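To close the chapter, one final illustration. This time we ask the reader to focus less on the individual chains and more on the assembly as a whole: which components sit near each other, and how the overall shape emerges from the parts.
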Amino acid sequence: MDKLVSRLLLLAACSSAAILALIALFIFKEGVPIMARSGLGAFLLGRDWSPLQGQFGILPFIIGSLCITLGALLIGVPLGVACAVYLAEFSSPRWVNILKPAIELLAGIPSVVYGFLGVMWLAPLIRIRLGGPGLSILAASCVLAIMTLPTIVSISIDALQAVPKSYKQGSLALGATEWQTVWRVLFPAARAGILAGVILGMGRAIGETMAVIMISGNSTAIPHSALDSVRTLTANIAIEMGYATGEHRQALFATGVILFFFIMILNGAALRFARRKF
Amino acid sequence: MRIAPRTTQAIAKGLLLTATASAVGALVFVVGFVLAGGLRHVSWSFLTEPILDMGRAGGIFPAIVGTLLMVLVSVGIAAPLGIASAIYLAEYTREGRLTQTIRFGINCLAGVPSIIFGLFGFILFVNILGLGWSVLSGGLSLAAMILPTVIRTAEEALRSVPTSYRDVAASLGATRWQVVTKSVLPYAIPGILTGVILGIGRSIEETAVVIFTAGSAVQTPTSVFDSARTMAVHFYILAREGISNENAYATAAVLICTILIINTTAYTLMHRLMRGRRAA
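The assembled structure is written out below.
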């Protein structure tokens, strides 16, 4: 009886790995043939995406994904890490106990709601104040930055609180101010954990789909400024999946393959950093 | 010129406080903006009427039913599977190559973007298994997506049970399975529930997966083989196609309230659990 239970539980435990393998199998099976046919270089570096002419180059979407993600990190990381440092080190524990769960609650707000807000409020603001179409890299970056805040803040607070108390006490005892202690001692000590949070936030930004479709404008051209409209890898899949057939559909799965690789590399990096904590 | 350490500290604190205020402010603004725009359009009839004229009129009853069914299917599959995985990892095995592989799988699965789950569900459930756009296809794909959340939280909950609980039960002659079900699980249940509730939350808020695997029918689904839309999908379609801003706001308000209630429940449970632990 106990043996049987143990076997069954093992089977269940393997399900995650099995699902991951199935996902990889199906996405690759659909996506790899077309990459092989048109050549990986032509697929990755092609500037022209016109499915009707059989042109499948996803360079504009790779650039789009990178730009938006980078923009989101530029805004979200300083804000999120600063917020975490303040809450973990300078505010009273009572505030942390209220604000940390509150911020984590907001991680559950559907991404489409953030996208909607971007469309209704942010995009018109950018169009009027800064010009361009409004639906742009800048708008998408701002919205994604807010979306990644809960992840970055929450993990950074954990990382800062995981630093042994003696580090802080030692530094303060040597006469350092609180800020010197944070900047010279706690921050370097918690760096790996904070970085893991940032990378997880980055993964969320690259993988985000619906919000990005709503506010990035989805143009298939390579952008020239932060006010230009772009399309991301995820958006490309979601927009055209509804009606794509044949080679076109395969090309969308191939886009998924590239996205899959990006995410796996990021996850590998995050896991490596997360393991190096206290 | 050297700036005195105290001055630097004052400046740094000021900057940090500003950053904190803007971060928290931005998040509060998002919730406030939607609730302010939406709550006044929410009424009893909005919750109970069918979707009329593609969402320009009527309510969101079918979307509520669709959401409920989809959550039931996804959690009905992910919860038993996830809890069993967690029990295996926490109670039945030592760390080794096998658990490393399993953990690697769980961690990677947790990072896979939702659109990939959508593609996967579309190919496997909708096409190859012939389930079509249905609540079942959607629920299965969502189950794959929330599985890592359930496993991780459940494993943490199991690991937080003091070893003495196991030792005492085992010393009384209980088999491993009896130890787990009679002694460890009752203690870990609040923590396990937290993971399940977080999974429910993720299923409700998800759009990309559902739209490719469950379709977006406006009729109320009567079985798991019907196509259906969830509240999140309904909201997305209303907002994206500019069908009705008023109803989009109202749907978003209902959606946000649901999520906030669900996540608050999860956190209260977890908090109570932690406090109980500290007192013990």
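The two ends of chain B are 55 Å apart (CA to CA). The longest strand of chain B covers residues 51-52. With these observations in hand, you are ready for the problems at the end of the chapter.
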